Amino acid sequence: RRSSDLAFECERQALPAMAAFQSQICTLLCILSVYNACAMDRYVAAVYEHAVILPDATEKPVTGEEALKLMNKNMDILETAIKTAAEKGAHIIVTPEDGIYGWNFTRATLYPYLEDIPDTEVNWNPCTDPQRYGPAPVQERLSCMAKNNSIYVVANIGDKKPCKSSDATCPEDGHYHYNTNIVFDAEGKLIARYHKYNLFQGEIQFDKPKKPELVTFSTPFGKFGLFTCFDILFHDPAVALVVTLNVDTVIFPTAWMNVLPHLSAIEFHSAWAMGMGVNLLAANTHNTQMRMTGSGIYAPNKPKAYYYNKETEDGRLLVSEVLSNPGPFHSNLNGSWSDYASGSPGFSTNNNFFVRSIFFDNFTLTKLENAEGNQTVCQKDLCCYLSYKMLEKREDELYALGAFDGMHEVEGEYYLQICTLLKCRSTDPDTCGEPVEISITKFEYFSLSGTFGTPFVFPEVLLSGIKLAPGDFQILPDGRLVSHSNLSSSSLLTATLFGRWYERDPPQRNSTPAKKSL
């Protein structure tokens, strides 16, 4: 044939394929346009602080029926909170760690409370297909709570996985026990499962996963990641979810015991959200004897809602609207936390330093002896700088500026760099760093900075009565934590830059994260 005839024939044969390809492209674009139209720029979040009904202390395991009876008592309370949250327009609700069965278990006494939780790839809705993986009454009920109320539900339960003796790490009882967060979407489908990696020292009933899991799920109102309680103090999975996988909101069930002056729940969790530039939905258990209280809906710029109550045993539902994608904030993850302090502010130093233990860490401190001034205190590579002015220098209260640069070695090993302005329990310097909840002194202004070697710094401001200070301070681009003028109407407990230098942490076995997303 002539070349022109061949070209015409090739074009004629290609037309159907091109038409089919164009049709597929149009279909894909339509799907994307519908998704974008449905995507929400804000949503309503809920967290529930639950006063858990605990099991009776026993060395003998209860029956499965007895375990389910206790768990149903807790789920009765959670279901009421979930219904109320849905009625208030919430799209997602987070419930606490250990919120369904409590704590103080051995491996044997925990076992009746566990269920086999499948991988989310199986595409399972326990509410509509409850027997697909054998009896799973807890998952079935939680799934139906989500489906019946058209709300995403996050809960914490125990997962059991059989293992063989050929597995060198298989426990003697033949099962792995995992502290597990699960998420059901608004139709009741299981969409996320996370096994807690950084177990607290008392969690002898659980096993540590072989690798940290990076678990995410996507919704019309943003991308979510999840981890549990003690995880928040470590790089994996907490920081990796934000820095590597770019989640918008972190789900955080916890059973957090408050430790002043730097690790009370509302103080540190709100600071973590600000330092990382993400939303944090933190649901704590409520048990005043265990110093457990403090839940919140935290945005990067300020807490949207929070609860702290040591006086009663009441739970509390929090509901608030948040941005789906909080966008760039001042989180300073580019390493600018030390810009101001590294420029040698020229503050004078004195020799009136003393050392005191604060939560088992030996801080170097110096007293604030005047109503205003500039102070410097250093430890190892960290120098902390403070400019301040009190409205009045009281004779019955003492404040100090402190620095710590070193490895924390109690209840876990992790490297800290901390600059802190804190109220001492009395005018005796020996009490500096001891827990204190009430203050009278007000500051007209303060500016706190430090020569941090890490970009991961979390800014804390805590007021008298264990209250947060939303909108009363900010982080400048050069790394200074500075007060606003309206803070002068409140009495200050602490202002802290809490730095975590993850690269200096001791190595963890099998620490390469395993990614899991939906």
Short recap of the structure:
This protein is α+β, with helices and mostly antiparallel strands. It is 20% helix and 32% strand.
Strand content: 25-35%
Q: What is the rounded Rg?
A: 26 Å
Rounded to the nearest angstrom, the distance between the terminal CA atoms is 54 Å
Strand order of the largest sheet: 11-10-9-8-7-6-25
Identify low-pLDDT runs. 1-19, 25-37
Q: What characterizes the major β-sheet? A: 7 strands, mixed
The number of helical segments is 7
Structural category is: alpha+beta
Shape: globular
How much is the average pLDDT?
91
**Number of extended strands:** 25
Considering DSSP H and I runs of 4 or more, what fraction of the residues is helical?
Answer: 10-25%
Question: Top keywords for this entry?
Answer:
518 residues; alpha+beta; seven-stranded antiparallel sheet; globular
